Amino acid sequence: MPLEFVTNVNQSRRESLLQQWSQTHDSKHTIPSIYVVAVTSENQVVGYCELGPNPEPSETQYPISLETIHVAKKYQGCGISKSLIVEAVRLMLSLSDMTGGVVVKAFQQNQRAISFYKKVGAEWLWDFETSEYGGQSRQAVALGWKSMKDIISK
């Protein structure tokens, strides 16, 4: 799926999102949650991602978090994931004056995801342990981009 299609999907909604955002938020410093969906020409959803405020207030250098990204197996490896991230960041930059970094967290066993994030410019930040999913302690890694603009320029 070409980036233009993902961009066109968002451009058709950009004005209404901006209007909705400005009506419900007083400060440009409030961080919105951005949802971007990739669809085929037949309107089949093939992927989505969510970018929002980092839930860890102590991670001030990385105020934005890539919360979720998923692309249907059939469409993986076609550039959709990168396009979703880039478009979500562009939309975030148009809705907010935030310029800080973006963090994404993955389980260490998910080497495919970690390799993908590194391929699109994320750098290793720190390792940690989490029991957030399933109550069982698991090793995880945080990766990130120092600036949202780094993501767009890749």
UniProtKB/TrEMBL annotation:
SUPFAM superfamilies per UniProt: Acyl-CoA N-acyltransferases (Nat)
Looking at the UniProt entry, the stretches that span the membrane are none
- Looking at the record, the residues that make up the N-acetyltransferase domain are 1-154
| Pfam families named among the record's database cross-references | Acetyltransf_1 (PF00583)
Q: Which domain of life is it from?
A: Eukaryota
The record, for Gene3D superfamilies, names:
3.40.630.30
Q: Name one GO molecular function term.
A: acyltransferase activity, transferring groups other than amino-acyl groups
Q: What protein name does the entry list?
A: N-acetyltransferase domain-containing protein
What is the species of this protein? Rhizoclosmatium globosum
Taxonomy of origin reads:
Eukaryota, Fungi, Fungi incertae sedis, Chytridiomycota, Chytridiomycota incertae sedis
